[in-house]
Amino acid sequence: MSRFDPASLLVARTQTADEGAIIRMAQKSRDLRAKGMDVVSLTVGEPDFDTPINIQEAATAAMKAGFTHYSPVQGIPELRAALAKKLKAENGLDYSASEISITNGAKQAIANAVLSLIDAGDEVIMLAPYWVSYEITVRFAGGTPVVLSASVEENYKVPAARIAAALSPRSKLLILNSPCNPTGALWSKAELEAIAAIVRSHPRLMVLADEIYEYILFDGEMASIGALPHMRERVITVNGLSKGFAMTGWRLGYAAAVEPITRAMTRMQSTITTGANQFVQRAGIAALEGPRDAVEAMRLRYRARRDTVLAGLRAIAGVRIGPIPATFYAFPDVSELLGRTAGNHRLDTSDLLCDWLLEEHGVATVPGTAFGAAGSIRLSFAASEADIEKALARLAKALGSLRA
Ligand SMILES: Cc1ncc(COP(=O)(O)O)c(C=O)c1O
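Above: inputs. Below: predicted complex with pyridoxal-5'-phosphate.
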């Protein structure tokens, strides 16, 4: 009898679900550290701060009060009501508690939305550079990603006319992430109005607006596309507490959309995970309605680091970088440096460049291939000020040593 091979049974879907470069670089950093190398890692996409204490205490109190049971799949009514209030007051978004669903992280809200709307043959417009998970989720659902790219000179924002030109009768969803991971780009209200006009003129196009970095904002104003005229029915707004409240490990996200969409998204969720954790949802109410001092203190720390990172990167020849109005990421374009050599290495791609930076200079970054922009690299400044200074010095030395 031939040997039983479970791996041979895996379906093709398992091959598409891979966050590739980010995970590879994080693992490589750990391996090199384990071998004793001094590695500074700017790879992670999460706050380096702990969750504010008032939120921790609210979770503990809720647990002690017995909120340890299953939650309704759509989320507890008290948190949905608190979110309806928040979305109205802070974002101008008009959704009732019944139009809000609570998810196990924003990632699940994105998956619920994509699984509800996208079928084989549906086209999803993605604005590169983009967060890699969107593309994976769209492929998972059988959809076809249509990738439009923006350059540093365009401040990483695809012009509205390019979006209009890419639409077809098969277009179904436009994914818009403002503020954006990995570039830190922020779409102004006027820019969103131009996009909304295009969306409204299409018979079946909806928008998935991911606003998870809204509180990590340094310059300009946050604007929500779902708050623009006649966009309420067209937009699914996704958000979560992971980034702004430093709650990545708690897994608390949410979405706002009109009822038929919200109901479908809740059905998707019920198949896979059921409702988000009860005591975490109670803590979420404390986060939303409690003092925001800690959120503001973190924002100021990120802003100071942003200034350091921008100054450091702008001083390196061959590196091009746009403004970073928001988030804790920098996404410098290093395409001028690709093809140069270091010793006997020819660094033709950002993947090779990132490997070399890590292996030879002890600084871990993520190649732009993970974000649909092969000529760039991503640095996260959700890292200590000391690590950021050290990483910038190493980058300057390393990149300055490359020969044409
Ligand atoms: C743009 C973007 N959206 C959503 C998420 C997912 O957030 P959550 O931790 O709430 O699932 C991330 C996390 O990295 C992100 O960068």
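DSSP finds 13 helices and 14 strands in the chain.
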